[in-house]
Amino acid sequence: MHMGDFMLSPAVGGTMMTAAVGTAAVSIKKVRDMDEKKIPLMGVMSAFVFAAQMINFTIPGTGSSGHLAGSIMLAILLGPYAGFLSMAAILLIQALFFADGGLLAYGCNVINMGFFACFIAYPLIYRTITKKGLTRTRLMTGSILASVAALQMGAFSVVIQTLLSGKTELPFTQFALAMQGIHLAIGAVEGVVTAGVVSFVWKVRPDIISTQPAEKSKQGYKSVIVGFLAAALLLAGGISLFASANPDGLEWSIGKVAGDKEIKGETRVHKSLEKAQQDIAVLPDYSFKKQENADEAVGKVVSGLVGSGITVGLVLAVGYLIKLIKRKKAK
Amino acid sequence: MTDIAGALYEIKHLDELSKRDNIINNIHPLVKLIVTLAYIGILASFDRYEVFALVPFIMYPAAVMIICEIPVGKIIKRVLALEPFIIVAGILNPILDKNTIYIGTVSISSGWLTLISLIIKSTLMVSAGFLLIASTGIDDIAGAMSLVKVPSIFVLLFLLTYRYIFVLMDEAERLIKGYTLRAPGQRGVKIKIWGPMIGQLLLRSFNRAQIIYQSMVLKGYNGKYSVSADKSFRYAEGIYLLVCVAFFIMSRLINIPMVIAGIFH
Lengths: 331, 265
Known about the structure:
Strand content of chain A: under 5%
Oligomer: heterodimer
Mean pLDDT of chain A: 75
Strand content of chain B: under 5%
Strand order of the largest sheet of chain B: 1-2
Number of helices of chain A: 13
């Protein structure tokens, strides 16, 4: 579910980063109020999830294998705030060392994989099911349902962010169906593993599972949700501004999904969209506009290729020069 | 990243590269962080149909790789490993983008342009990310984070996670080795063992966390952790920042390959 930078526009990436930073700020405040003992524990637990992600499971009935993502497990073991922060640390290391998720996409990934698991699926599903006391069945159902829900929300969020960015052509319906479908399967596996681990630990060391941080107040969740909503509104506002200036994002993708027929419409939005599509789609600078300009277009493509070739050549030449100078200095 | 030993080696290797002595490695980590983010942000702001104007952006990763003597093959190998995902995300572009462009008499779907643009962009962005860590290292990145006022709890968490990844991945590797020796020829771990195996790892981690905490307290840990971040800015670093960002902005505003082609025309 890790998103790469190439899928995102700076507007979407930036707004999601703001949302992630906001959520992290609230979480840090909450964790600070807790025991300081937590922090080394959090570090070791994030490292544990990182290591656990490397273990491959055979998925019964298929030839394939999968691995754990671990955000629900972190929420269960550390509580939602510390769990969210741990996930954010894991994602940062993955982005830096493995390019698993980009830097611009970091906010998106933290929200998609941390926020929904820790602040929606965990409190609303897992906590509700296990509220009346822990039993093996409740632990199992809670973990599985929460994992499936968290992954579904995360996957849907990926679809929305991708479409708002408008960098790929993926049509909404098909993309959403594919994402939700595959993540239903992934969520089920994630849930079964989480349930297995949680019930194993509960059997062997019940203190770890049952001494999970007591829910302090509903207030905490509220402030997180409010912060997130504010960011979402900001996102909507930012995107619509961006879209009206340069309908490359939202309107464009909606237009794409709706199909060309419906776009040839009467409203202003449709008209501006139509114009934009003409402008964007046919490389205005390069005069691909009409077939009559075909020769000119060839000319532009050729000059583009030549120009690019020269640019790359220059880079290589400079590189070679530096190498030569270095070698001389070394002597 | 399924091969645990391989993954560990890769992490260590990137961090080691950053410890060598050269101009870029010695630049203030915050400057490098800003340059990398500016690079990725400006690349992301390009129109989906842009191809040629992206080419001058090769300059930055090329320069860093040359100056830092980072093996090009290493970075290319890592970028190639991610390329399939990018191609999957963009492979439908040529089919779904119904606009047609004409190059002479040949008509192609303009989706090909978006696909090529996507591949170039992502390759450049991913290399920039790798080069940041290969020229900066984890401690300096943490230092830069605390300079921009990222709360110390998060910086500490980030550093501790990084530190214990080595310990726990070692532990995980031993577990897996033990398992595979008893289950030769089997792909992955059977469903029955999922819970107990990861649970085992979890218990070991938990115990370790407690021991670590106790020894930290004995050494005077009181919830605070100091990160070396008091590196001061130098003139040269300001110039580096200015030159890089100015170059990115110029390349964003001017289609350099087209201009160059114009000169020779």
